[in-house]
Amino acid sequence: MISLPIYDKQGKQVDTLSIDEASLGGTIRFVLLKQAYVITHGNQRQSSARTKSRGMVHGSTRKLYKQKGTGNARAGAARTPIRKGGGVPFPKTRTREETRTSLSKTSRRLANRNALLAKLVDGEVKCFADLNFTAPKTAEFAGMLKSVGIERTCLVAVKNDNRNAMLSARNVEGVDVCRVEQLNAFELLNHRYLVVDKAALQSFLDESCFATASKRPSENGSGAGSAPAKSKPAKAAKTATKASANKEAA
Predict the structure, then answer these.
(1) pTM listed for this prediction
(2) How far apart are CA 59 and CA 22, in angstroms?
(3) CA-CA distance, 26 to 28, in Å (whole number)?
């Protein structure tokens, strides 16, 4: 069991949280973590580089000067690849480049939890009793980080409804903010520290935050999966109208 200290906003330890390593993968899988990091980093590539051949470059195709008698080297049009502003010998003209790769869902989830285990083992998780602020206060948030000895980059994971904490942390240098259900191996490994409150960390460990996130798009029946309810009286009226029409035709 890992005993994680819980701090208040003044940096004093007020409680501890016991975390079972088995729920986070048991041991650190370095190969899996590297694979998840490389795949996520590669998928951020835009694949939008495009270049023009000599036929696509704007300009005349006229020969610059005659072939012989000038003493210069032979020259054709100004759009040749050897001249400034000319085309490219082998241009990138594909309209779409598919370079994305993916991990299986099981491996991706294990990598995310294993990255958290690596942070816990190295003592790089700073857990607070709460991250509630009455108003967005950047200076107060920066002082809270300093009180627990955070001097490098850190990732702040908060619940979706904790807007004041998001606004307080976003202007601190070297600090990035995300929702707790968005924690992944790439972001965890890309920052030295993880800052989270006790309630958000427990929701990640018992996976209750993912259930809340899955319900969020379909609130009030406005989600993509919600279908409009059929009106039974309207359907009955349509059937009665069709029956009367058939009777008149007979």
Answers:
(1) 0.71
(2) 67
(3) 7
- 3-state class (DSSP) for residue 65: coil
CATH number of the domain to which 23 belongs: 3.40.1370.10
List, for residues 212-245, the tens digit of each pLDDT value: 766 665 445 444 444 444 445 555 555 555 556 5
Identify whether 230 is part of a domain: no
Q: Could you tell me if residue 225 is inside a domain?
A: no
pLDDT tens track for 23-65 = 888 899 999 999 999 999 999 888 888 899 999 999 888 999 9
Domain count of the fold of the chain: 1
Sheet architecture: strand order including 13-19: 13-19, 2-7, 125-128, 193-197, 154-158, 175-179
84 within a domain of the structure (yes/no): no
Neighbours of 55 (CB within 10 A): 9
Residue-number span of the structural domain to which 122 is assigned: 2-43+106-215
